[in-house]
Amino acid sequence: MTRLSVNVNKIATLRNTRTNGIPDLPRLAALALASGANGITVHPRPDERHIRASDVPALAAVVAEHAGAEFNIEGNPFHGLIEHCARTRPTQATLVPDAREALTSNHGWNLAEMTTDQSRALATSIARLRDLGCRVSLFVDPMPELMPLASALGADRVELYTEPYAARAADGRTTEAASPYVAAAAAARDHGMGVNAGHDLNLDNLAPFLREVRPVDEVSIGHALIADALVLGLGEAVRRYLAICAASRT
């Protein structure tokens, strides 16, 4: 079954608008896990616009209390990600190429156009993270030709950037939208890597994505799930996403 990792960045964004610690981020992460979520994802940016450095060990401790749950830290390996991973030893490190000022992740690693020095630096970061015991996932666009490059760098998985899929699916072009992801996922598996996916997946587009692109090891969902939680409650929102992931087995 596709595993669900709940990205709690948006909860932290709300908390950061006040100084009273409300909402309680570790408590809500624990609620998501108690509701069945398979893991928690955070993306601690250098400007601490949502997840703060102090949140990372606190959330690692919450995840450690739930058997089988995974902690996934996303970030740019050249902007502090490795240091967070060295302190907390997450299950997975997801490497994204975000600039410091980026509003959100909006593209994957351009592996085909990297210089030799850039590729060497990324491979060194991956090796360091694997030495720390982390599974390493590279955030990439759905391009089959990138998969042998990701594998050669030492990645264990790729996370397919799904915003383009979500935009087309919203216009009713689900099968067309999923087509490049089907090819990219197949290429990733052909090169010995697992497949994750994330960005703008929601209750409407997740099921068709998982039907077309299979198997998917993990989806990381934050913005839509937290928005749904405002209506449904966090526990029920998690359960609805989990039901879609469970249905993907058939």
Short description:
45% of the residues lie in helices and 16% in strands.
Write the SSE topology.
Layout: E1 3-7, H1 9-15, H2 25-34, E2 39-42, H3 55-64, E3 70-75, H4 81-88, E4 92-95, H5 116-131, E5 135-140, H6 147-153, E6 157-161, H7 163-169, H8 174-190, E7 194-198, H9 206-212, E8 218-221, H10 223-232, H11 234-247
Parallel strand pairs: 1-2, 1-8, 2-3, 3-4, 4-5, 5-6, 6-7, 7-8
Helix pairs in contact: 2-3, 7-8, 10-11
Describe this structure in words.
- The chain has 250 residues and is an alpha/beta fold.
- The protein has one domain: TIM Barrel (Alpha-Beta Barrel).
- 45% of the residues lie in helices and 16% in strands.
- An 8-stranded parallel β-barrel has the order 1-2-3-4-5-6-7-8, surrounded by 9 helices.
- Helix 7 (163-169) runs antiparallel to helix 8 (174-190) and helix 10 (223-232) packs across helix 11 (234-247).
- The termini are close together.
Average residue-wise pLDDT: 95
Strand-residue fraction?
15-25%
How many distinct beta strands? 8
> Which consecutive residue ranges, at least 5 long each, have pLDDT under 50?
none
Counting helices, strands and paired strands, the structural category is alpha/beta
Q: Rg to the nearest angstrom? A: 17 Å
- From the N-terminal CA to the C-terminal CA, the straight-line distance is 9 Å
Q: CATH class, please?
A: Alpha Beta
Helix content: 40-55%
Major sheet attributes: 8 strands, parallel, barrel
Total domains, how many? Answer: 1
The CATH architecture: Alpha-Beta Barrel
State the shape: globular
